[in-house]
Amino acid sequence: MNKILPVEQPFLDLESLKSKYLNDSSTIFSDFEKIIVIGFGGSSQGSKAINCFLNEDRVIYFDHLNQNFINNTLEEAKIDKTGFIFISKSGSTSEVLTIFDFLVSQLENKVNISNHFFTLTELKSSPLHDLSIHHNIKIIEHKKQIIGRFSIFSNTSLIPAFYFHKDLVDDFFEGATKGLNDEQNARDEANKDFDLLNKGKIINANLVYGNELHEIANWKKQLFSECLGKNSKGVMPIISRMTKDQHSLLQLFLDGPKNIFFEIMSLNYDHSNLLNITLNNHKDAMYESLIKEIGEVRERTFKENDIIDLGSYFCFEIIRVLYLSDLMKVDPFTQDAVEIQKNFLK
DSSP string of 125-161? Predict the structure, then answer.
């Protein structure tokens, strides 16, 4: 196992995580035509990022409380060919429990719930765990030591992300290993981030060129927000879909407050057409504009469908944020402030 900072991190124990995935993935039957994932935050964002990158639309996410969307999805789906995966580490996420009850009421007379519902949660008594036992639903263990935002290499992300792409798992872990071996560069990036924070640049604008990258940017948003937003410190990540946001935010980006540091995320498409060429031209123009007006910008280019590169990126960003949290002297593993809102839930 690699060491990142002074602590050994179970969420980067790649050999163990891959072994557990290979052992557990067969729990979910292989003949579903669609998978619906019910999870919030880190319980769904990792697999959502991977599936978005792969343009995989057979995996649908109920990571919201949008009744119209849920009802429409159920009406259009072949329920007898659809699997439902409920994910909550604690087993007490209120939104997951609400959707669980709703789906049971809608589907229990249409399919055998125990053959279509699956749960990823800790192996301890909790509302979700106990409901799963009651309905004879298969439970896959959610490791206690791995919290949502660090779960990209665990079953939480792997099972929904690679249900239709099991042949890509080895490549994904090959990329993750490359990311671990790039630890020094991640540390250097964290030092640059820290210098920017000390200059008052507390907003990280991620400019996304390529729809396949949007959920990857959202994954990074959660990682940096939950790890660093403590003790009146933090980085505010924002996501801009380009070129759309050039028509609403470009003026502010180039001539507004100088408290923003920019990162461009772009996709190098295998196929060239007028749309992709125009997208790339806008990306290049934005890069040159930021260099001229702001003085600096980082760029991360992904290759279309390159799952090795994606695995490396996830690992790199995790290491980067861990080093940055060390420099900022904040604990990246806590999120005590979210309990404030939970205490007001009725």
Answer: --HHHHHHHHTT-EEEE--TT--GGG-TTSHHHHHHH
Distance of CA 101 to the CA centre of its chain: 25
Amino acid letter for position 167: D
Give the pairing type, strands 260-268 and 236-242.
Answer: unpaired
Q: pTM of the predicted model, to two decimals? A: 0.95
Tokens of 201: 């640049």
34-38 sheet: strands from edge to edge: 59-62, 34-38, 82-87, 117-121, 138-141
Q: Which residues pair with 82 in a beta bridge?
A: 34
Tell me which residue has tokens 């072994």: 19
Cα of 192 vs its chain's centroid, Å: 24
Closest CA to 91 of 61, 30, 134: 134
Beta bridge partners of residue 260, listed in sequence order: 203
Tens of pLDDT, residue by residue over 208-232, are 999 999 999 999 999 999 999 999 9
CA distance 41 to 45: 6
- C-alpha 330/C-alpha 258 separation (Å) is 25
